[in-house]
Design brief:
This is Anaphase-promoting complex subunit 4-like WD40 domain-containing protein. Keywords: Repeat, WD repeat. It comes from Dissostichus mawsoni (Antarctic cod). InterPro entries: Apc4-like_WD40_dom, WD40/YVTN_repeat-like_dom_sf, WD40_repeat_dom_sf, WD_repeat_EMAP. This protein is mainly β. It has a single domain, classed as Thrombin, subunit H (Beta Barrel). Helices cover 0% and strands 43% of the residues. The chain has no helices and 8 strands. β6 and β7 form a beta hairpin. The model has no long low-confidence stretch (mean pLDDT 91).
């Protein structure tokens, strides 16, 4: 059983814009951050260095998720669209597919 002690900030990074949503990769080595300006950034957790960043939307990112095997990243925006990226292509973050006109829940 773990006992939680005092919580403290271990590190911080300035991304330049307000963050709206985050998701850790299943392995915990990357964190994806969706921004209010439509950009998303992937950081390496150990160093907080930017692994990749992209802006394919102008509206805020509403949700962001890694696939269970960390190969894909789904990025949902307030434009009722979800963009899909294959992370095996590397930090250039090439979009491989997109779904549009998704109804709000």
């Amino acid at each position: 059983m773990a006992v939680l002690g005092k919580q403290k900030m271990l590190n911080k990074v300035n991304l330049g814009h307000p963050a709206r949503t985050i998701a850790y990769s299943p392995e915990g080595d990357m964190v994806a951050i969706g921004m209010k300006n439509g950009e998303f950034i992937i950081l390496l957790v150990a160093s907080l260095k930017i692994w990749g960043k992209k802006r394919d939307r102008r509206s805020p990112i509403q949700d962001i998720r890694f696939s269970p095997n960390s190969r894909y990243l789904a990025v949902g925006s307030t434009e009722s669209a979800v963009d899909f990226y294959d992370l095996t292509y590397g930090p250039q973050l090439n979009r491989i597919n997109c779904c549009r006109d998704i109804p709000a829940s």
